[in-house]
Design goal:
Blueprint: H1 6-55, H2 82-96, H3 116-133, H4 140-162, H5 165-168, H6 183-198
Helix pairs in contact: 2-3, 3-4
Length: 199
């Protein structure tokens, strides 16, 4: 195969360079447009998320038969922490889910915070209940699952794993993992120490 003369090769190279430059400009313009669209999508997503947060102001689901326990999440502007949500849930649970004498559905004892495993389980029980029954993400299926699986499992572990019978009779017996401070109390104590050190 014969080689092209020098002036033909330069001409082909020049055309190729022009085509590459044109394609580079097109790709650059497309990338710029894509960044602009991505910015607009992010802006819309932020507005939708904010609207959902405002709309999701912890409205109880239609199937919720009793008023739900008050929670920190009911008022997002509050300075309360999740301990209020869990504490109120414990009271609500004890007014709602205590069963017959001899049954497994016992009240959560007043000393629940002094049993670390129980405190962890009570907190997740409270928030799983809220997730299933409150706000726009509430689901009758999840609410029924909570009643059918989470609550009975918790009731069984409460008396089997977490507390002594004395705790269920309004006494308290230190058994199992030793009591410890929750993370909110640790932060408060640390903040108070730092404040005292500054004065």
């Amino acid at each position: 195969m014969a080689e092209l003369p020098e002036h033909e090769r330069r001409k082909d190279q020049g055309e190729r360079d022009l085509q590459i430059a044109a394609l580079t400009q097109i790709v650059g313009t497309l990338a710029q447009n894509l960044r602009r669209v991505e910015g607009q999508v992010n802006w819309v997503a932020k507005i939708v998320a904010e609207a959902r947060d405002e709309q999701d102001s912890a409205e109880p689901a239609a199937w919720l038969w009793f008023n739900p326990p008050a929670a920190t999440e009911d008022e997002p502007q509050t300075d309360q922490d999740p301990r209020l949500t869990v504490k109120n849930f414990v009271t609500w649970y004890n007014n709602t889910f205590v069963g017959i004498d001899g049954g497994r559905a016992k009240p959560i004892p007043a000393c629940w915070r002094q049993h670390p495993g129980l405190a962890m389980e009570v907190a997740t029980l409270a928030y799983s209940w809220r997730s299933a029954n409150m706000g726009s993400s509430a689901s009758a299926r999840e609410a029924q699952y909570w009643l059918h699986q989470w609550r009975p499992g918790f009731a069984e572990r409460l008396t089997r794993d977490w507390v002594h019978a004395d705790c269920l009779d309004d006494g308290h017996r230190d058994e199992g993992a030793p009591p410890r401070e929750d993370r909110f109390t640790v932060v408060e104590r640390h903040a108070a120490t730092v404040k005292d050190d500054r004065h």
